[in-house]
Design goal:
Blueprint lengths: L9 H6 L4 E4 L8 E7 L3 H6 L14 E7 L8 E10 L10 E7 L2 H13 L3 E2 L4 H8 L5 H12 L3 H11 L2 H27 L8 H33 L1 E7 L5 H9 L17 E7 L2 E7 L9 H16 L2 E6 L10 H7 L4 E5 L13 E2 L8 H10 L13 H22 L4 H19 L3 H13 L7
Parallel strand pairs: 1-6, 7-9, 7-10, 10-11, 11-12
Antiparallel strand pairs: 1-2, 2-5, 3-4, 4-5, 8-9
Helix pairs in contact: 5-6, 6-8, 7-14, 7-15, 8-13, 13-14, 14-15
C-alpha cells in the first residue's frame, strides 16, 4: 500500500512524508546514545549541522563529525559524533536516513534534537519510523508487529517468537495461502458463469478438487491457529496459581520456584491473605506465579476476601499447582474448589517430603525446603506441552483474530460448495478471505480486487 491510495488513517499515519527525528535509545545518562533522522529532507537537515559537504559523503560508511547548532559559529558545538548515512529507498524507512551515535548525556541528545527540529525536522511519534517503512513497502504489518514484539520480549522464548515474525516467514506463508485462494476463485468464477449459461458443463469433479484443497488448508491452518494461541501464552508468560489449604507450604514453594524470599513464610495458618506474585524465566520461558491465600472455611472477613482472590487466580491461570502436606483425600469434599478447577491443568504436589507426611493422591512428592525442583519443572513443561515449539505459528492477539476469520471463511466456502452448490456465495466468501489476508498484511481493500483480477486474467492466452 502506498500513501495516496485512499489512505486517511491518523492523518496519513502521522504525515509519512515529514522528516522526523527521535532519540532511539533510553533517555538516561549512558556511555552512548543514538538519535535517528529520517525523511525526504534528512540530508539537507543534517547539512545544516555540519561543516562537511554532505552531498560528497558516501552512504553505508561511518564518519566522525562535529555537530553544531549553527555550523557558522564554532561556539555552538553540540558534540562530536559518529554519523551513518543511508540513502532511500535502500534504508530501514525507505527514506534518506541519518543515525547519530553521540555521547550519552541527556543534555547532548536534547540539544541535537532541538537543532534538528530548528532546521526542518519534527519530533517523531511512537512507531513512526516503522510506519514510514510500512508505507514505503519495506515491510508488511506482520513484520512491523514483529519489531514491536521483539522490543517488548521478556524471555528467551518470547525473543525467538518475535524474531520468527520479523524474519518474514509468516508473511511468506500467508502469501502462499492467498495465491492458492486466488487460483480457486479464478476457477469458481468460470463455473459460476457456466452455471447460468444455456449449455452447462459437468464440473462436479473440478468442484470436488476445490473443496478438497480448501479442506486440506483448513486442517493446516487449524494447527497454525492452535500454535498461535500457545505462542501468545508463551510470549506473555505462563500463569501458574499455587493453591491449597492454609500452611501447606505454598509460600515456601513460591520462594523456591523464583529463587527469592518473595512471600512471608510462617507456621501460623492464614499468614498469606492476599495474592503474592513472582516471576521467573525457566528454560527460556517466562512464568508468572501467584501464591494464594489458604482455602478454608473462616469467619474472618479479610481472609475471605483473600480466598475469593485465590479462586480468581485459579480461573485466570494456565496451570494450577495444588499443594498439600496431608494427602488429597480432602479434595472430594471441596465442591467449590473442584468446580473452579474443572477444565484446568492441575498438578497435585505434596510439598513436605522431608517430614514424612501422607502423600496419597499426589502427582508429585517433593520438599520445597530442599530446593531441587527439577522434577516439578519437568512435569510442568510436560503438562503445558512447552517442550514442543510451534514452527509455523504466528504471534499476537491481532494475528489470532485474523486467523479465526480466515478459517471461518474457508469453512463457509466448503459448505457453500458441498451442501448448497451456491458457487457464487463460495466465490464471494473466498474473496472476503483474501481481503482478510490483505488486511492482516496491511494492504488496502483495492489490492484484493487487483489480486483477483490479475490471477483471473492470467489464465487467458497471449494476445486475447
Amino acid at each position: 500500500m502506498r500513501v495516496g491510495e485512499g489512505v486517511s488513517c491518523y492523518n496519513v499515519f502521522m504525515l509519512v512524508f515529514d522528516t522526523i527525528c527521535a532519540l532511539a535509545t533510553s533517555p538516561y545518562k549512558s556511555a552512548l546514545a543514538l538519535v535517528r533522522l529520517s525523511g525526504p529532507k534528512a540530508f539537507s537537515v543534517f547539512s545544516s549541522l555540519t561543516k562537511r559537504e554532505v552531498e560528497k559523503m558516501e552512504t553505508g560508511r561511518v564518519y566522525l563529525t562535529k555537530l553544531y547548532e549553527n555550523k557558522e559559529d564554532p561556539d555552538t558545538l553540540i558534540d562530536e559524533a559518529l554519523v551513518f548515512l543511508s540513502k532511500g529507498p535502500k534504508s530501514y524507512t525507505g527514506f534518506d536516513t541519518v543515525d547519530f551515535s553521540i555521547h550519552g548525556s541527556p543534555l547532548v541528545a536534547k540539544s541535537l534534537l532541538q537543532a534538528l527540529v530548528k532546521n526542518g525536522a519534527r519530533l517523531a511519534e511512537k512507531g513512526e519510523f516503522s510506519a514510514q517503512a510500512y508505507y514505503n513497502g519495506k515491510m508488511d504489518l506482520l513484520r512491523a508487529q514483529g519489531i514491536n514484539d521483539l522490543i517488548n520480549a521478556q524471555s528467551q522464548r518470547a525473543m525467538e517468537l518475535a524474531n520468527k515474525t520479523l524474519s518474514g516467514e509468516n508473511s511468506h506463508k500467508v502469501e502462499e495461502l492467498k495465491e492458492g485462494l486466488l487460483e480457486q476463485i479464478a476457477q469458481l468464477e468460470y463455473y459460476v458463469e457456466d452455471q447460468y449459461s444455456d449449455e452447462k458443463d459437468d464440473y462436479d469433479e473440478e468442484l470436488l478438487l476445490i473443496s478438497s484443497w480448501l479442506k486440506k488448508e483448513i486442517q493446516e491452518w487449524e494447527k497454525v491457529l492452535e500454535g498461535t494461541r500457545r505462542n501468545n501464552k508463551e510470549y506473555q508468560g505462563i500463569k501458574v496459581a499455587i493453591v491449597g489449604e492454609p500452611n501447606v507450604g505454598k509460600s515456601t514453594l513460591l520462594n523456591a520456584l523464583i529463587g527469592e524470599d518473595k512471600a512471608i513464610v510462617s507456621s501460623i495458618p492464614g499468614t498469606t491473605r492476599d495474592v503474592v506474585e513472582g516471576e521467573k524465566e525457566i528454560r527460556g520461558i517466562r512464568f508468572l506465579f501467584k501464591d494464594t491465600a489458604g482455602i478454608r472455611r473462616t469467619e474472618d472477613e479479610i481472609e475471605n476476601i483473600g480466598i475469593h482472590k485465590s479462586f480468581q487466580a485459579i480461573k485466570d491461570s494456565d496451570l494450577v499447582l495444588l499443594a498439600s502436606d496431608s494427602g488429597f483425600s480432602f479434595l472430594p469434599k471441596e465442591k467449590e474448589l473442584l468446580s473452579v478447577l474443572k477444565g484446568k491443568k492441575v498438578l497435585k504436589v505434596a510439598t513436605k517430603k522431608d517430614l514424612g507426611v501422607p502423600t496419597d493422591g499426589a502427582d508429585l512428592v517433593l520438599s520445597s525446603l530442599e530446593g531441587d525442583l527439577s522434577l516439578l519443572i519437568d512435569r510442568m513443561f510436560s503438562l503445558l506441552d512447552l517442550e514442543e515449539k510451534e514452527e509455523s505459528a504466528f504471534l499476537g492477539e491481532r494475528e489470532e483474530s485474523y486467523l479465526e476469520k480466515i478459517l471461518n471463511g474457508l469453512a463457509e466456502s466448503v459448505s457453500s460448495i458441498e451442501e448448497t452448490s451456491q458457487l457464487d456465495i463460495a466465490s464471494d466468501t473466498l474473496r472476503q478471505v483474501v481481503s482478510t489476508i490483505n488486511e492482516l498484511l496491511g494492504k488496502d481493500e483495492g489490492k484484493t480486487m487487483e489480486d483477483i483480477y490479475q490471477t483471473l486474467f492470467s489464465h487467458f492466452c497471449l494476445g486475447k
